[in-house]
Amino acid sequence: MPYRPSRTTLARAAIFLAALTSALPLRAADEFKVTPAQMQALGIQLQRLDKPSPITGLAYPARVVLRPPAGHRERNRQARAAAGAPGQP
Question: What's the whole-model pTM score?
Answer without folding.
Answer: 0.28
